[in-house]
């Protein structure tokens, strides 16, 4: 547009509404038109994927960060992922490839409106594939797809993901905390209102608004026990949807944090002696949701008691710092279940106990857990084993 501003009105008149050279008038004499004029670009698509950042790569223990880059289109594609082409990126910069054969492929799997750029722009959640066309070892969504057996699909599994997170100032201190020293001890902050207890609400509100505009099934949000710590919930949704939407919601939180000058971390234990950040996962099958479903809930808990070690090994990096048996957690080495017990590994919420059916809450996953891994393990342990 800058060049357009500098043009005289007479020059402008020769151009189309958007500054493109106008087509020569029929029979016009020798007007030169640039061949292969660049197409008018109308849509920005933010391709988002998970990297292979940390932990023990390829063993499911990794902790993924989100990465993204923008692709422009000359036509407005819709919300169907099949309208968006595969793309590639340099996997050697994301801990997913060696330098000598570094291209990884991103394949769109879920498209939502981009609430930050506005229509017609979109966010495009992708799966990662290697140069051989096979799912990349870090592609946990593909591993989840493998667990969606007829038996699992028949159970129409629902997941409600409670994503806790901590806001940090650029200094690395929790947002709103004094640079030296500490706020008053925890107690007043959970679900609080008022400037003395609540730090960072403008970002929380912007994030809620953005998730709703993007069509993410965000069910709510609340201030947490540690000041500067917050939670939002996604679900109940199916296994792939909940994972896609948790990643998209995390992306929006990081992205909006840029505008607010707030760093968002999903570290499980940012501050010792304060509550950590988890990702309680509420889970139900068709059998659990029917009257009398308590039997199915208890049967699943019995199965989960036998796979505790496998789940813990993939329930998030540094989760051992959080699951200490204190601060409303269970001890990492002990499987414990209870009704309305916030010190348990698996909790049956009180309303579920009273009704006799509903869902269970797995309180073990840490805030930085890969949601596809949690869904995969819960389905594997309770349905496919
Ligand atoms: P808490 O009391 O542990 O803080 P929240 O209200 O934060 O619980 O979160 C509960 C989550 O459980 C929500 O995301 C909600 O959508 C989800 N949920 C509700 N019913 C079911 C169900 N039948 N199956 C799975 N998830 C469910
Ligand atoms: Mn480049
Ligand atoms: Mn909650
Ligand atoms: Mn919480
Ligand atoms: Mn919970």
TrEMBL record:
One of its GO terms (molecular function) is glutamine synthetase activity. Residues 137-385 form the GS catalytic domain. It comes from the Eukaryota. GO terms for cellular component: cytoplasm. InterPro entries: Gln_synt_N, Gln_synt_N_sf, Gln_synth/guanido_kin_cat_dom, Gln_synth_cat_dom, Gln_synth_gly_rich_site, Gln_synth_N_conserv_site, Glutamine_Synthetase. Residues 43-133 form the GS beta-grasp domain. Its EC number is 6.3.1.2. Keywords: ATP-binding, Ligase, Nucleotide-binding. SMART domains: Gln-synt_C (SM01230). It catalyses: L-glutamate + NH4(+) + ATP = L-glutamine + ADP + phosphate + H(+). GO terms for biological process: glutamine biosynthetic process. Belongs to the glutamine synthetase family. PANTHER family: GLUTAMINE SYNTHETASE, GLUTAMINE SYNTHETASE 2 CYTOPLASMIC. This is Glutamine synthetase.
